[in-house]
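Course exercise 7: structure representation. Students receive a sequence record and must write out the corresponding structure in token form. The form below is the worked example handed out in class, using Insertion element IS402-like domain-containing protein (140 residues). Read each field label carefully; the graders check that inputs and outputs are placed in the correct fields and that the protein name is recorded exactly as given.

STUDENT ID: A-19
EXERCISE PROTEIN: Insertion element IS402-like domain-containing protein
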Amino acid sequence: MIPPSKVRPQGGGTQDTPDETVFAAVVYVLVSGCAWRALPPCFGISKSTAHRRFVIWSRAGVWGRLHEEIVHRLYDASLLDLSRAVLDSAHVRAKKGANTQVRAPWTGASRAPRCTSCRMRTDCPWSSVSPLPTSTTASR
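STUDENT ANSWER:
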């Protein structure tokens, strides 16, 4: 589903980052809602690499094909029940003559996002942000 990386005709450059690593970083940003600049260093790639691949894959239609594949696999395994479904959509109309000087208040996440991919690694500074739930804390 993921398009192959382009080979530089002049050669050189850095070694290509594996698609699996970039995919994990992109999914982390999409699921957690953190900004690209807050991508934890435990993924081992830069925020610009993750964002660039996200844009390339978006233009290539990877996310739509991935969604279709997951839906088909769930349907084939009889794990998809569409007898009850919810459709959610948000549209905000920009009114003509609206005050463009008013800015929305800052509601962004903190600069230390929860890193769920490397909690067990001790070399990642983000792994200590939220401890793993234990049997005594999970029921609270």
